[in-house]
């Protein structure tokens, strides 16, 4: 079982915490990580692109000219795809790009991502983050003290003071332990866990 240092917001070591090797010391499976990130990005696609077919374009009810005798090619409507302003053939229409991956695979991907951050020494555990009032300046001073350039903070419960203090910082994201996911872990250089969230994450991933 791995042991990690626990820091306070002044960057002082205040304790140690045991980490479950099944969650934080697992073998890294890059293939599963790729599959889950691809699924997450697909689910974010809006799928709202839309074009009009010849039946959707306004007008074109009258035949442009008679069928024979004009010397021109026959034509039945000005809304034909070969006419300027006509309908689109095989154009995009609203669709849902999302798909599902088994829950066990998603859990394994999160475990691989957590293990990767710990192995790379990019994971930090904070004892807590006491803040009495909303202050982006105070929050940023802690981020700067630790040298975080792009950090994901994982908290154990709803904390509006922390959330509002961090939301104006461009390279900081704060989520609850229930919402931890592969894309956010990999999209941020540092992973910062509040100590109470560690057991919650282990409990959810080992359930």
How would you characterize this protein structure?
The protein has a six-stranded mixed beta sheet with strand order 2-1-3-6-4-5. The chain is α/β, with parallel strands linked by helices. It has helices at 21-24, 30-44, 103-119, 136-146, 160-166, 182-187, 195-206; strands spanning 2-7, 13-19, 123-126, 151-155, 172-176, 190-194. It is elongated and about 95 Å long. It folds into two domains: 2-45 and 98-206, 3-Layer(aba) Sandwich (Ribosomal Protein L4, Chain: A); 47-96, no CATH class.
Number of helices: 7
| CATH fold title of the largest domain | Ribosomal Protein L4, Chain: A
Largest sheet: 6 strands, mixed
Could you tell me how far the N terminus lies from the C terminus, measured between alpha carbons in angstroms?
Answer: 18 Å
Structural class: alpha/beta
Strand content range: 15-25%
Task: Work out the oligomeric state of the chains in this entry.
Answer: single chain
Q: Compute the CA-based radius of gyration.
A: 27 Å
- Under the CATH scheme, the architecture of the largest domain is 3-Layer(aba) Sandwich
* Helix and strand run: EEHHHEHEHEHEH
Structural domain count: 2
CATH class of the largest domain: Alpha Beta
Task: Write down how many β-strands occur, each being a DSSP E stretch of 2 or more residues.
Answer: 6
Overall pLDDT metric: 94
Shape annotation: elongated
Q: Outline the low-pLDDT stretches.
A: none
């Amino acid at each position: 079982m791995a042991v990690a240092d626990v820091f306070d917001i002044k960057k002082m070591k205040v304790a140690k915490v045991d980490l479950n090797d099944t969650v934080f010391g697992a073998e890294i499976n890059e293939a599963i990580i790729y599959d889950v990130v691809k699924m997450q990005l697909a689910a974010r696609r809006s799928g709202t692109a839309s074009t009009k077919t010849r039946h959707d374009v306004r007008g074109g009810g009258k035949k442009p000219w008679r069928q024979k005798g004009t010397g021109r090619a026959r034509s039945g409507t000005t809304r034909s795809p070969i006419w300027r302003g006509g309908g689109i053939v095989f154009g995009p229409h609203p669709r849902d790009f999302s798909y599902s991956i088994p829950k066990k695979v998603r859990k394994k991907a999160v475990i691989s991502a957590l293990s990767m951050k710990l192995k790379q020494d990019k994971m930090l555990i904070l004892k807590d983050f006491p803040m009495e009032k909303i202050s982006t300046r105070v929050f940023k001073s802690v981020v700067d003290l630790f040298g975080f350039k792009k950090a994901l903070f994982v908290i154990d419960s709803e904390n509006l003071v922390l959330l509002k203090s961090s939301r104006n910082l461009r390279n900081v994201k704060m989520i609850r332990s229930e919402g931890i996911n592969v894309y956010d872990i990999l999209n941020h250089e540092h992973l910062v866990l509040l100590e109470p969230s560690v057991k919650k994450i282990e409990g959810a991933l080992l359930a």
